[in-house]
Amino acid sequence: MTILWTSETAAHATGGRATRPFELTGLSIDTRSIGKGELFVALRDVRDGHDFVRDALDKGAAAALVSRIPEGCTEADPLLIVPDVLTALQDLGRAGRARARAKVIAVTGSVGKTSTKEMLRAVLSAQGSVHAAEASFNNQWGVPITLARMPADVDFAVIEIGMNHAGEIAPLTRLARPHVAMITTVAAAHLEAFGSLEGIAHEKASIFEGLEPGGVAVVPEGLGVTPILLAAARAHAAKVLTFGEDKGCDYRMLSARVVGDVTIVKAETMMPAPALTRAGTVPLRPLRRKTLLFKVMSPGRHFALNGLGVLAVTEAVGADPSVAALDMARWQPPAGRGARQRIYLDILDEHQSFDLFDDAFNANPTSLAAALEVLAGAETRDGVGRVRRGRRVAILGDMLELGPDEIALHEAVARLPAMAKVDLVHCVGPRMRALWQALPQEKRGEWYETAPEMVARAQHLVDAGDVVLVKGSKGSKVSLVVDALKKLGQPDAAELFRGKD
């Protein structure tokens, strides 16, 4: 494995003292998943990471980043002792960024950060080596860890940056120093902390403050707060690229057609037109519109728009957007973010099955509306279940951190156009009770205060032939319902029936 840091280079980056020589192949903050050769970072959260250093070293950690010698350890153990662990972690990330040759991309947005990061990983991997954040490593710990884990010789790096409160994004983007910064969208997420969409937009727009000289900003058009984003982009970026459905976008979506589990996108962009002189030299070339066709391996216009932004980023980092468009099919949504799976209830009868959209990781009014549009367009199967008619079923958990209007925002979901095609809605949580009560009686399924209560009813919530969406904020724990629905399936049935649909 690649040696990322030695005791000498890590000590130099952090200003710390190494008790003995070591070599590091990675970093971790979790003893449950730490690998051999990794640096255990003893951060303080609900528990003090110093309490777990001995366990980490016993499990094969090459060293531990600490501010004191922990209980159970001595100077003979491989320790990197620093005044403050979080500051040292940030210093290590800063040093990792400084030595890298990579074109660095930073991504933020109220919806779609992780999916967009993974799209970029997928399309850029065909045009160079890529380093990208794991899972949702997008906070004050995750960003420096991602930078410190970055090999010096990768071609592209994709850094996800999130926020929960004001002033969080700017320090992280200054740490990452991106060549390109992209905002996916701005929506009513974390309203509790910001009070308005405009407040969220200003915070998201601060991602451009860390751009390298000559950097590029990639901005979504068509939002009410787009002027806020564009003003910040023009203040900090040498170039601004826009994407969306409006005329005048640098990357404009003309159509997005859902076919089964795939979204087929037609778009256009401004590209230089070939213009050779008689002498064979290439002068400044006029721009012309070029059509791009690509497919996203998940249904939904929101995924299509994110894909369009990804193509703009590929241009900004000097990759080929036409090749990236062809490679977009390399990406598929991860579990918890819209992935679709068929659950087989009978290993002898493939028709005894239902389709599950697992979107249980995050939720706000915008992302929920997009998910319900996907559900509304999904094809059910009739005549195979107890109910005889396949249904579109939504299982929805609370949307959190929406502020004083949270009850009204939950209730308003009942009036979304997509709800007309949803047959049944089960709800979890005190906030979602407002939606449940606002639904017409024929759409009203079951409501429970907590996800574990609904888990006990899993087999009664769905039927063969149904298409089921599970979505909610992570704190609503509707992922437990996803797990329960998956457990209704027969082991090995998916492999047995693969390719028969």
TrEMBL record:
Its EC number(s): 6.3.2.10
Positions of ATP binding: G109, S110, V111, G112, K113, T114, S115
Annotated compartments: Cytoplasm
Main location: cytoplasm
SUPFAM superfamilies from the UniProt entry: MurD-like peptide ligases, catalytic domain, MurD-like peptide ligases, peptide-binding domain, MurE/MurF N-terminal domain
Keywords associated with the record: ATP-binding, Cell cycle, Cell division, Cell shape, Cell wall biogenesis/degradation, Cytoplasm, Ligase, Nucleotide-binding, Peptidoglycan synthesis
InterPro entries: Mur-like_cat_sf, Mur_ligase_C, Mur_ligase_C_dom_sf, Mur_ligase_cen, MurCDEF_CellWall_CoF430Synth, MurE/MurF_N, UDP-N-AcMur_synth
GO CC field: cytoplasm
Domain Mur ligase central, first and last residues per copy: 107-313
Transmembrane segments: none
One GO term of the biological process aspect: cell wall organization
Domain Mur ligase C-terminal intervals: 347-473
Catalytic activity: D-alanyl-D-alanine + UDP-N-acetyl-alpha-D-muramoyl-L-alanyl-gamma-D-glutamyl-meso-2,6-diaminopimelate + ATP = UDP-N-acetyl-alpha-D-muramoyl-L-alanyl-gamma-D-glutamyl-meso-2,6-diaminopimeloyl-D-alanyl-D-alanine + ADP + phosphate + H(+)
Molecular function via GO: ATP binding; UDP-N-acetylmuramoyl-tripeptide-D-alanyl-D-alanine ligase activity; UDP-N-acetylmuramoylalanyl-D-glutamyl-2,6-diaminopimelate-D-alanyl-D-alanine ligase activity
Pathway(s) annotated for this protein in UniProt: Cell wall biogenesis; peptidoglycan biosynthesis
Job description of the protein: Involved in cell wall formation. Catalyzes the final step in the synthesis of UDP-N-acetylmuramoyl-pentapeptide, the precursor of murein.
Cited PANTHER family: UDP-N-ACETYLMURAMOYL-TRIPEPTIDE--D-ALANYL-D-ALANINE LIGASE
Homology family: Belongs to the MurCDEF family. MurF subfamily.
Protein name as catalogued: UDP-N-acetylmuramoyl-tripeptide--D-alanyl-D-alanine ligase
Organism: Paenirhodobacter enshiensis
Record lineage: Bacteria, Pseudomonadati, Pseudomonadota, Alphaproteobacteria, Rhodobacterales
